[in-house]
Amino acid sequence: MIDYVKPLDSLLIKPAGPDCNMACSYCFYYEKASLFPQIKKHRMSEDTLECLIKQALQQSNRQMTFSWQGGEPTLMGLDFYRKATQLQQNYGRGHVIGNGFQTNGILIDNAWAQFLRSYQFLVGLSLDGPRHIHDYYRKMRDGKGSWSKVTDTARLLLDSDVSTNALIVINDYSVNYPAEIYEFHKDLGLAHMQFIPCVETDDHNPGIAAPFSVSSDKLGPFLCRLFDLWLADFSGGIPATSIRFFDSIFYRYVDMLPPECTLLEECGVYVVVEHNGDVYSCDFFVEPDWKLGNIHQDRLIDLLNSPRQQKFGSLKSDLPQECKNCRWLGMCRGGCVKDRLRDPRDNKLNHFCRAYQMFFDYADVHFKRIAREWKIRQGFVSPPPPEQSQGKAKIGRNDPCPCGSGLKFKNCCGRQG
Ligand code: SF4
Ligand code: SF4
After folding, report:
1. Is the terminal CB of the chain with fewer CB neighbours within 10 Å at N or C?
2. What pTM was estimated for this model as a whole?
3. Tell me, what's the pLDDT at 241?
4. If you measure from the C-alpha of residue 23 to the centroid of ligand 1, how many angstroms do you get, rounded to a whole number?
5. Structure confidence by residue, pLDDT tens digits, 185-201
6. Nearest CA to ligand 1 atom 5
7. Which entry of 283, 298, 364, 399 is annotated as an active-site residue?
8. What is the SS3 assignment for the chain?
């Protein structure tokens, strides 16, 4: 259990609660409307917005990131975010403030794009791939596909110099198309990609995962193929695209803490604030058991460090024996807690365990080499002696690499291409 005071440095905010102008089949958040049965339209008031920003900036150190999500956060209208940035300026003197914005892109127009660029918002745009993949589950309320509008939004954001990541859900259909999805985003100019494997409980049978969930057996080959594509695009040891899961794993190989909470030892490093100021433990645990308090009565920093949030955090390190014995525990940490609970047949083991094992087995040798090269470039370790690296001493392709990485020469400094 974490026994120091966790700093308040990021918040995930749901200003329009679970409300959305789309009806994607795999959405996990729309059902959260049942938490607020008296309210039909969920909107954060100016009073709650001010309370939130004031608390966040008074209780954080120098850095604070606000991540606006939903539901669909554009439903608040642009003036809400104009007010938010004005409040950030009022209360945040001396702070380095970041804003993230996760959107389905439907309402984004030129005025939004100009605003997002002016205030340097980092946008996460939900776009699953080419039309047949994206429209498979990402439908409008009238059942029509959303792909044309969302790809227009992607172009508008990129043309307007808005920093934009693609958020890509891997489901039972899209898992068959790793190369098509990767090349599509790359060609569009979305070089930063975040892949999100989908697993939810079946509405009709809580004893199994929903049919749109991706299986571990299919996710494993998907990740390996994606990794090959990512690796093939390296130039001079530097990746040309960013895939958040791979980037996060790379952090582990260079002995740094990964940015992705799923790879950390414990959860509970951030909290979620709903439209009415209610505070919850995590985006995937906005439910009565994990309600920590409300910002109109409680301090955010106290809720982040509350016994309830500590308890939530420690769920992650309560691992089954398979994980404790696993050679990949140091990388995987059992994965995301919600992925251990959505399909009871998994017996609290991660739904994607076999996929992760397959992927780590496959990618390990390459990550070791990339990490070694990175450490040499950073000056953390010495390069191999010149007479060896220049091939003056004859080294067989299958010999141990003279740089000391423990890899074969052909997989390390002697790698071609
Ligand atoms: S449950 Fe998953 S998403 Fe939530 S904090 Fe833990 S690892 Fe992160
Ligand atoms: S790969 Fe599977 S067994 Fe190993 S730590 Fe991850 S979830 Fe646990």
Report:
1. C
2. 0.89
3. 97
4. 24
5. 999 999 999 999 999 88
6. 267
7. 283
8. CCCCCCCCCEEEECCCCCCCCECCCCCCCHHHHHHCCCCCCCCCCHHHHHHHHHHHHHHCCCEEEEEECCCCHHHHCHHHHHHHHHHHHHHCCCCEEEEEEEECCCCCCHHHHHHHHHCCCEEEEECCCCHHHHHHHCEECCCCECHHHHHHHHHHHHHCCCCEEEEEEECCCHHHCHHHHHHHHHHHCCCEEEEEECCCECCCCCCCECCCCCCHHHHHHHHHHHHHHHHHCCECCECCCEEHHHHHHHHHHCCCCCCCHHHCCCCCCCEEECCCCEEECCHHHCCHHHEEEECCCCCHHHHHCCHHHHHHHHHCCCCCHHHHCCCCHHHHCCCCCHHHHCCHHHCCCCCCHHHHHHHHHHHHHHHHHHHHHHHHHHCCCCCCCHHHHCCCCCCCCCCECCCCCCCEHHHCCCCCC
